């Protein structure tokens, strides 16, 4: 399609045509046998994507922030100690939510472009009894990737619940919820899961459900209370009709479609694709001598890349020119350095051809704005890197 623009922000993303088609079919009753099957199957497919055969999935109308809110509202009571491990904007959002529910929070904040060391986390967990810790798998404001496996193991050692904000990682980065011992892994539909915005998705471990069941006080958020939603999830999974709040029927039909596409690709292949494309993309960016926000490639996310503007480039002009060149990108999000960088999402349906388009537009945009460089450099580096990654089938 002429003039078609690619949406390359870190959510919402470019959706598969079959997913968009699923959104447009006539809305069925939320208690029809066909829809009950779709809802039940979606819950089951979530377990395979999260790698959590024992977990309890929830599908609720809302955004990723509702998933965060739901985890906190159900697991935390007034006065509980909670450790927040922050690698950017979304780490701090967890602190705000936790404090709203009366938690005593301690925040370990990574310097910009870095992660919090395991030593610092262990030292803090050892200093007092924490009921839970929160971490952001990929902080979308910085493009920083943390390793939940090791943090979850520490949490387990100190009898602390681990809550993972996987909004920018589930179905794009490696996650093994049960094996790693994560108690909550939460996300939203519009990111790597590949469904238009509107669904809050999470899986709670058996331990998380037990902690919730043993609460001393009522959950103070009526809509988010698992007392209202758990029977609904169980009913749909047992293929029985039930009702608490009307489910977003079309979005759930689209979710099932996307989860089937994800399962068909297979998680190993899907994660490899994200890793290969991200690595090649970073090689392209490096070839232009542009600096990425993460201090090393080891902690750079595979679902998005945050890049500093080169000297003399104005962010607003840059974004506008990128749109003229048919690529929609996101600006900075971290308040301290918001105007100094931009973000490119590369998750879900993303392909090598999409990223070649991005790099082509990026080069033209920089040249048009008077930045001196040689055209084609980033695309060459991208291609060479991708060809080197032999598992990746071009
Ligand atoms: C997008 C995002 C959120 C918030 O999700 P919304 O759907 O916008 O509420 C939370 N955490 C992370 C890591 C995100 O990327």
From TrEMBL:
Binding residue positions for substrate: 343
Modified residues (N6-(pyridoxal phosphate)lysine): 191
InterPro entries, alphabetized: Aminotrans_V_dom (IPR000192), Aminotrans_V_PyrdxlP_BS (IPR020578), PyrdxlP-dep_Trfase (IPR015424), PyrdxlP-dep_Trfase_major (IPR015421), PyrdxlP-dep_Trfase_small (IPR015422), SP_NH2Trfase/AEP_transaminase (IPR024169)
PANTHER family: ALANINE--GLYOXYLATE AMINOTRANSFERASE 1, AMINOTRANSFERASE CLASS V
Pfam families linked to this entry: Aminotran_5 (PF00266)
Keywords from the named record: Aminotransferase, Pyridoxal phosphate, Transferase
Record-annotated Aminotransferase class V domain positions: 34-332
Cofactor(s) this protein requires: pyridoxal 5'-phosphate
Biological process according to GO: glycine biosynthetic process, by transamination of glyoxylate
Protein name: Serine--pyruvate aminotransferase
Species of the source: Bizionia arctica
GO molecular function annotation: alanine-glyoxylate transaminase activity; L-serine-pyruvate transaminase activity
Family: Belongs to the class-V pyridoxal-phosphate-dependent aminotransferase family.
Record bears the keyword Transferase: yes
């Amino acid at each position: 399609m002429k003039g078609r623009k690619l949406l390359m922000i870190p959510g919402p993303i470019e959706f598969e045509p079959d997913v968009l088609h699923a959104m447009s079919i006539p809305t069925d009753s939320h208690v029809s046998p066909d829809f009950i099957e779709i809802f039940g199957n979606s819950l089951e497919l979530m377990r395979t994507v999260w790698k959590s055969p024992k977990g309890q999935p929830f599908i609720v109308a809302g955004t990723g922030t509702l998933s965060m809110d739901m985890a906190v509202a159900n697991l935390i009571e007034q006065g509980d100690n909670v450790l927040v491990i922050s690698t950017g904007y979304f780490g701090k959002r967890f602190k705000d939510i936790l404090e709203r529910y009366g938690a005593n929070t301690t925040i370990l904040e990574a310097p910009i472009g870095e992660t919090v060391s395991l030593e610092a986390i262990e030292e803090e967990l050892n200093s007092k009894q924490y009921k839970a810790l929160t971490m952001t798998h990929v902080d979308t404001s910085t493009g920083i990737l943390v390793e939940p496996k090791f943090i979850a193991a520490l949490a387990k050692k100190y009898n602390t619940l681990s809550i993972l904000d996987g909004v920018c990682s589930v179905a794009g980065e490696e996650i093994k919820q049960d094996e790693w011992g994560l108690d909550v892994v939460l996300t939203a539909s519009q990111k790597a899961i590949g469904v238009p915005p509107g669904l809050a998705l999470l899986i709670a471990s058996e331990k998380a459900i037990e902690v919730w069941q043993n609460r001393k006080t009522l959950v103070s958020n009526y809509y988010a209370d698992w007392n209202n939603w758990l029977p609904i999830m169980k009913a749909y999974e047992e293929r029985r009709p039930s009702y608490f709040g009307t489910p977003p029927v079309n979005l759930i039909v689209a979710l099932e479609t996307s989860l089937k596409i994800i399962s068909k690709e297979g998680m190993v292949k899907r994660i490899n694709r994200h890793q290969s494309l991200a690595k090649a993309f970073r090689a392209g960016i490096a070839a232009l001598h542009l600096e990425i926000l993460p201090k090393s490639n080891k902690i750079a996310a595979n679902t998005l890349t945050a890049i500093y503007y080169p000297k003399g480039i104005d962010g607003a002009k840059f974004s506008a020119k990128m749109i003229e060149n048919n690529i929609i990108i996101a600006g900075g999000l971290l308040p301290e350095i918001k105007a100094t960088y931009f973000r490119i999402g590369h998750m879900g349906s993303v392909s090598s051809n999409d990223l070649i388009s991005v790099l082509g537009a990026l080069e033209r945009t920089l040249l048009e704005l008077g930045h001196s460089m040689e055209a084609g450099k980033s695309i060459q580096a991208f291609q060479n890197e991708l060809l080197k990654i032999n598992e990746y089938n071009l």
